[in-house]
Amino acid sequence: LGNLVQGWSSTDPAVKEKAVAEAEKRLHDEETKQEEETKAAVNRTVINTTPSGTANAEAADTGAFLAALEKDAKERAKRRKRNEHLANALKEKGNDAFRKGHYVLAIQRYTEGLEKLKDKQELYTNRAQAYLKLHEHEKAIKDCEWALKCNEKCIKAYFLMGKAHLALKHYRESRQCYEKILQIDPQKESLFKDCMNEVNLEEKRVKDEERAMKEAQSGKLAALAIKELLQKLERPDQEITYYTGGVRLLAGAIKDCTEQTLFRINNGFSILKDNEVLRWGFCAEQKTTAEVDLAVSLLILWQAVCTGNEENQRLLLTQPDVSTQLPNLLSSGVSEIQKETLALISLYSENENGRRLLLRHQALTGWLQILMMFVSSTDARASSAMNILSDLSQEERFKIQCRDLLPTGVLPLFTQLLTSAKLVNQAALACCVGIMGNLCADAAIRRQMAECRECWQACLKLLGECSDVSTPKHQECLFAVLGLMMNLLLESNVIIQDFAGDISGSCMSLLRNKDGRIVTRAIGVLSRSLQASSCAVEAAVTRGVVKLMIKFLKAGGEITSNYCLKTLSVCTRSNRQAQEDLVKSDKGFSVLLKLLDSENEMIVGNAAFCLGQCLVVPGAAASLLNSNVVMVLLKHAGGDATRPSVQENAAVALGKLCVAEPRHIFQLRKLNGLAILNSSMKYVQST
């Protein structure tokens, strides 16, 4: 046993490993022996033939060994804790060096940390990231593999390994790494798509360049022309008109993907950086006529280079001068420059990958305000700007970026455009209002707009102006503003309560509009605005809203019917005059009974609610004695309806019907519906 303890303490790994194995064997044998002795003690009396002195000596040796084993485990745990503290300190030093761009020093610190703690996953992935910065891709892959041995579900390791394989043109292996990320965490789908798109683009770029080089070597005139034209632009100290002409010739030479690739591999994107005259003319704030011509020519060139080519689109946005100047060019006030800038940006905004490039390389915080200004333009710039905005509004990241300047920049401009509807481009304004309505899908944006008193005033002003004009463009503005108001009325605040009467009054005036779409939206806005104010309900009822809703319900239309019933539900909930008006307008409840048979449960639920509210009117319940209302309500209350609220509304209406006119109970008894009636009474009493 003494030899075993010495082996355990040995510095020779082989001797120590052998001692550990022997120790485990002895412990196992000791446990087996104890089990056998326990069994023997139960079954029979065993005579111990071992001399007592020998047994005591072995027990003492075993105890000493176990004590040594326990002591060693504690020392190792203490040593690991100390090493872990040192490794973390070295990791932080490495991270600090990495942030400063000292990648070699970062690798040294991470390596020192791994010497202290060899199974620390973060040190491997951090060192792999530093290796990637130094283009040592094979070493990065090896570190990622070690990280995965420490943690087989390490997403960062798979991400970095995918990057390294991509740099080595191992496209299949790169894709496999990114697929692993999605398997580990399905919520990383956006990251997965971005990574896979990067692999696809890189693979396509390499193939395009290889093909372009082959064609250039085969002596194609276009390939040679592009190279020669780029070389001419490198000549220093020429007049600006010389460079403008060269840029236009270059743009005309680029007709397909091959020429686009040749432009890229011949460093075409560095023409601004390498030519001070070009750069100065493009970036000048107050441009001369010659500088305007140059800027327009460059924008046309980049359109030719980037059309349908995602790699070129990406490279263009990575050029600092281009990225910085795009918003300035949009705000330049020079129509030719604005037109071509909008055309260039449209190449990005019209597809998902292009929009992602814009969001990644551009700070779009002020773009909503800049593009919105084009509503005042009378030419094609207005529609181009609105199309770009419409595309960008689909992206959640764009909505988030729009929040910051909304109250101080965007909303003042937007309200000004609404109040000047007759002076601006109405088609563009309608599109702009629709875009703002789409942005309201973002709760933060919707809340800010709904709390803007000036915005509500501007909307009401536009409703008043456009309701008197029947031109298609004004009607589109009207339709768009009603949609925006419907979205804003999803909020509830004091300002909405203040404007509820004016909003509902304007909508009531629009109910005679000849455009059915506008009438439907006006009823939708009415159904939401009335919920904010009892005074607005009273005013609407006085103006005959109930009779009008019954009229539209008779005409049919699912969406319109839904809004009409919501409006009636709000009015009849607390207004006795509305209840009486409904009984008078809908003789025998013929309209509501028909709606109770609808396949749309929202319509059924609201129809049942309105019916239940009106049964307090004297004679209302008696007018239903010869109808099948009991059977219909019983069917919905008994479980045919899937929505609990519909079942409840039907049950309440059934209970109120029998309370108001007990003769309905006979019909209910015939249909074995008394149990449902009893269960509905708790709802009746609570109402």
Automatic annotation (TrEMBL):
Compartment annotation: Cytoplasm, Myofibril, Sarcomere, A band; Cytoplasm, Myofibril, Sarcomere, Z line
UniProt keyword terms in alphabetical order? Repeat, TPR repeat
- Point to the regions of Basic and acidic residues compositional bias: 14-39
Region of interest (Disordered), ranges: 1-42
Q: Which SMART domains match?
A: ARM (SM00185), TPR (SM00028)
Main subcellular location: cytoplasm
**Residue ranges of TPR repeats:** 155-188
Gene Ontology cellular component annotations, sorted alphabetically? A band; centrosome; Z disc
The biological process GO terms on file are:
axonemal dynein complex assembly; sperm axoneme assembly
Q: Does the keyword Repeat apply?
A: yes
| Record field: compositional bias (Polar residues) | 1-12
At the top level of its lineage, which domain of life is listed?
Eukaryota
Q: What is this protein called?
A: Protein unc-45 homolog B
Name the source organism.
Zapornia atra
Q: Which gene encodes it?
A: Ttc12
